[in-house]
UniProtKB/TrEMBL annotation:
Pathways involved: Purine metabolism; IMP biosynthesis via de novo pathway; N(2)-formyl-N(1)-(5-phospho-D-ribosyl)glycinamide from N(1)-(5-phospho-D-ribosyl)glycinamide (10-formyl THF route): step 1/1
Annotated source species: Marivita geojedonensis
Any one GO molecular function term: phosphoribosylglycinamide formyltransferase activity
Similarity section: Belongs to the GART family.
GO BP terms: 'de novo' IMP biosynthetic process
Protein name stated in the entry: Phosphoribosylglycinamide formyltransferase
Functional description taken from the UniProt entry: Catalyzes the transfer of a formyl group from 10-formyltetrahydrofolate to 5-phospho-ribosyl-glycinamide (GAR), producing 5-phospho-ribosyl-N-formylglycinamide (FGAR) and tetrahydrofolate.
Binding positions for N(1)-(5-phospho-beta-D-ribosyl)glycinamide per the UniProt entry: G13, S14, N15
Length: 197
């Protein structure tokens, strides 16, 4: 049975596009919703142009009441009946209650070689630490921030003189390769880890 995928975004949606463009033909999944917490997220227009239903749940009216915001998110998601939820640049930290509701069905892509550099500013932190490589990880979402089981990683070298933006651009290329690959395997029921060179 084809899996139904909802994709959560906050910005331009480049990872969302890479996921959607892979979900064609005999792919075991198909996109049923692109949901954003920002009405001005550029990825919404990209999803609409591809015929994918979109929705917005603005976090700002909820202030610091994250459970209320997540209740609204859940209401919209449940109408789409997703089997899998992909976080693709969704810039809100989710509470344990929300994560538990969708446990085992949520994936996220993070721009570091987890468990290194959870959270923000990953590229600058890798450069500042003197690392020789960086990369990205796709992991299952748990209540621990960026702490779920890693299902795939891709690596890129850190070149002398790199800025955080330089490194981010090279890592993003690999994100667009890794995330669709892991999603395809996840939708087929494969949970073993894959590492790209």
């Amino acid at each position: 049975m084809t899996k139904r995928v909802a994709i959560l975004i906050s910005g331009g949606g480049s990872n969302m596009v890479s996921l959607v463009e892979d979900m064609t033909g005999d792919h075991p999944a198909r996109p049923v919703l692109v949901l954003s917490n920002r009405a001005d997220a550029g990825g919404l227009d990209k999803a609409k142009a591809r015929g994918i239903p979109t929705a917005v749940v603005d976090h700002r009216p909820f202030g610091s009441d994250r459970p209320a915001f997540e209740d609204a998110l859940t209401h919209v998601l449940e109408q789409a009946h997703p089997d899998i939820i992909c976080l693709a640049g969704f810039m809100r930290v989710l509470t344990e209650g929300f994560v538990t509701r969708w446990q085992g069905r949520m994936l996220n892509i993070h721009p570091s070689l987890l468990p290194k550099y959870k959270g923000l500013h990953t590229h600058q932190r890798a450069i500042d630490a003197g690392d020789t490589e960086a990369g990205c990880s796709v992991h299952e979402v748990t209540a621990e921030l960026d702490g779920g089981r890693v299902l795939g990683q891709a690596r890129v070298p850190i070149v002398p003189g790199d800025t955080a933006d330089d490194l981010a651009a090279r890592v993003l290329v690999q994100e667009h390769v890794l995330y669709p690959l892991v999603l395809r395997r996840f939708a087929e029921g494969q949970r073993d880890r894959i590492d790209l060179p």
